[in-house]
Design a protein that fits this description.
alpha/beta; binds S-adenosylmethionine; two-stranded antiparallel ribbon; elongated; 264 residues
Length: 264
């Protein structure tokens, strides 16, 4: 692979099939002037095609050797490279209307998606390749086996669709898993209003921490059964049966109840 030894700890499986590069970049449909931010450009399979169509790409790559190669290959006018950890990177420095693209390192995909959700207001859209099962969790509806914290946390800020499946043979080295590409578009003004985002995240996390528990038990430290009932939620239900709208209503009711109590 171009003399580069793939590093497992960085989740390096490089896209090696030009047909899939083409399909992914066609799905992104970059236009000149778009603010493309690529996470993990690696050996530049996607980067080169993105630069060609958008004129310029900002990329975040953690691997020092790959970063050095990228600097050699692309002029600074074509590629702004941040040699950094995408999990710790300050996306606020990149401005607005960002179009994030990435064949993500699968070992960090959930925390990275949570981070992107926190920056949704700055994003125009996100196209990411992930393990197929992770994409299934991202798009899962309430009540389904794949529905969980990832589904709720992302669906409350993004409209998400699965675009295409990519087989292991499209990568080098060949991974053990199937991959899929997802598109996430911020809901913007259509996003439900969450009174306290940190509280919402705590509620969702607790509700799914032990899937077999009823909400009464799972949310024991966060909310009294009466508060749940006043939000129209059955304390005897399990977390996986609540829709995204239910979680928003529940977290907002907990917040309003706490605010009212502290005002007394
Ligand atoms: N985009 C390339 C492609 O499609 O062939 C490479 C994809 S490879 C699955 C993941 C890339 O993300 C690697 O280049 C890896 O070094 C990089 N990476 C891994 N962890 C990272 C992190 N925390 N921050 C930024 N880049 C990371």
């Amino acid at each position: 692979m171009h003399g580069h030894r793939a590093r497992r700890r960085f989740g390096q499986n490089f896209l090696a099939d030009p047909r899939y590069v083409q399909r992914i970049v066609d799905a992104v449909a970059p236009a000149p002037g778009d603010r493309i931010v690529e996470i993990g450009p690696g050996l530049a399979a996607l980067t080169a095609a993105l630069v060609e169509r958008a004129g310029h790409v900002t990329a975040i790559e953690i691997d020092r050797d790959l970063a050095a190669r990228l600097r050699e290959r692309f002029a600074p006018e074509a590629l702004t490279l941040h040699e950094a950890d995408a999990l710790a990177f300050d996306y606020a420095t990149l401005g607005n209307a960002l179009r994030v693209v990435g064949n993500l390192p699968y070992n960090i995909s959930s925390p990275l998606l949570f981070r992107l959700a926190a920056h949704a207001a700055q994003l125009r859209d996100v196209h990411v390749m992930l393990q197929r099962e992770v994409v299934a969790r991202m798009v899962a509806p309430a009540g389904s086996a794949d529905y969980g914290r990832l589904s709720v946390t992302l669906q409350v800020v993004f409209r998400i669709e699965r675009l295409l499946l990519v087989p292991p043979g499209a990568f080098r080295p060949v991974p053990k898993v199937d991959s899929a590409v997802a598109r996430l578009v911020p809901l913007g003004i259509d996003a439900p209003a969450i009174a306290d985002r940190a509280l919402f995240d705590r509620v969702v996390q607790a509700a799914f921490a032990q899937r077999r528990k009823t909400l009464r038990n799972a949310l024991f430290t966060l909310c009294a059964p009466e508060t749940m009932a006043s939000a129209g939620i059955d304390p005897g239900a399990r977390g996986e049966t609540l829709t995204v709208a239910d979680y928003v209503r529940l977290a907002n009711t907990i917040k309003a109840t706490a605010d009212a109590a502290s005002a007394r």
